[in-house]
Design goal:
Structural class: alpha/beta
Helix content: 40-55%
CATH architecture: 3-Layer(aba) Sandwich
Number of strands: 7
Order of helices and strands: HHEHEHEHEHEHHEHHHE
Radius of gyration: 17 Å
Number of helices: 11
Shape: globular
CATH superfamily: Vaccinia Virus protein VP39
Strand order of the largest sheet: 3-2-1-4-5-7-6
Amino acid sequence: MDKAFTFKEIDTEGQQTLEAIAQAYKFNEWMYQTIVPYTQGKILEVGSGIGNISQFFLKNGQNLYVSDIRKNYCNILKERFASYPNLGDILLLDLVHPHFDKVYAKYLGYFDSVFALNVIEHIENDLLAINNSKKLLKPQGTLIILVPAYPALYNRFDEELFHYRRYTKKTLNALFEQNNITILKSFYFNVMGIPGWYISGKIQKNKTIPKNQMKIYEMFVPLFKLIDKLTLQKVGLSVVTVGRV
């Protein structure tokens, strides 16, 4: 879906959403458990936000570098995680910086794993974003991308969060293929998130995810994890692709 958004250094709606999701510990842990099998060695998280997923990597002793495009999030990450000895660095990172290779020269070919959860949909030139993510990886490094699924679900939440588009396995995989990244696995995630996203964003037209709704969702995460397994991850609110460079 074609949209025109202006970058905001302080993203009020985005931060409110991250804070609402921060209360859903079981959900964040589920997302971590979904991607962690594909990570190893020196890991970079692109778009760490306030650290909802970062916390699990750091608590489990993994060598994690965190990053964000916004300085206020980087400051939050520093305050929250500076005491962890396994925190590699905190990067102010713009995946589509016009001088990417020069600005981030130190980190080209530096990481064993790079992951970006709910990031690429915020970037107009998503093909370039994937290409630059690839540049950060060592040979045989792994790239994990999670994005919102199904264009038909695009609603006010997406607009307020500055989502340029939603994806399918086909459209996300195409970005990997065009960048000559070998696809290892592609699947959907969180099928039971679809009704809540549709009702709250499309019918109720909420601007951000209500905290009370997130709390209710959190209560049922163990059941929702089981439903994802039963549906073989063939449908979901998000789509995940894992590739090797």
